[in-house]
Design brief:
Layout (H helix, E strand, L loop, with lengths): L1 H24 L3 E9 L11 E3 L4 E3 L13 H10 L3 E11 L4 E13 L1 H11 L3
Antiparallel strand pairs: 1-2, 1-5, 2-3, 4-5
Length: 127
């Protein structure tokens, strides 16, 4: 009886390790987009550019109308509602010593299947 209980305890203790190891073998694929956000934090009703790997253009809704955002947080909430997560952020400063402009770039990603990742990569390469 003690041996069965001991075997059960050992199995229960090592089960999470076994499951975790199996999950590590499965590679996760992502679809990436780069969002360019205007520099001025005081901007209201601004548009963002999206690099989807095939084109770089201002974000549009399903009717082809350009989407305008009230704040930078509203941009993040919009993309999060569509299943995207922020992967990285960066900025680019340009201009002169008296007048500078900073563009913000958010690299966002969404989990996809291996087949979708291969298809996206094929579509991103210029033929």
């Amino acid at each position: 009886m003690k041996r069965k209980v001991l075997s059960l305890v050992i199995f229960v203790l090592f089960l999470p390790i076994i499951v975790f190891a199996q999950n590590q073998d499965q590679e996760q694929y992502y679809l990436y987009n780069i969002i360019e956000v205007p520099s001025s934090i005081d901007s209201k009703n601004f548009e963002v550019k999206v690099d989807n790997g095939e084109t770089i253009e201002k974000l549009k809704d399903s009717n082809g109308e350009k989407i305008k955002f009230k704040t930078r947080a509203s941009v993040l909430m919009y993309f999060q509602s569509l299943g995207w997560e922020v992967s990285e952020t960066t900025s680019k400063i340009s201009g002169t010593s008296h007048l500078t402009d900073t563009n913000l770039y958010w690299i966002i990603r969404k989990p996809i299947s291996k087949e979708e990742a291969l298809r996206a990569a094929e579509n991103a390469i210029k033929q």
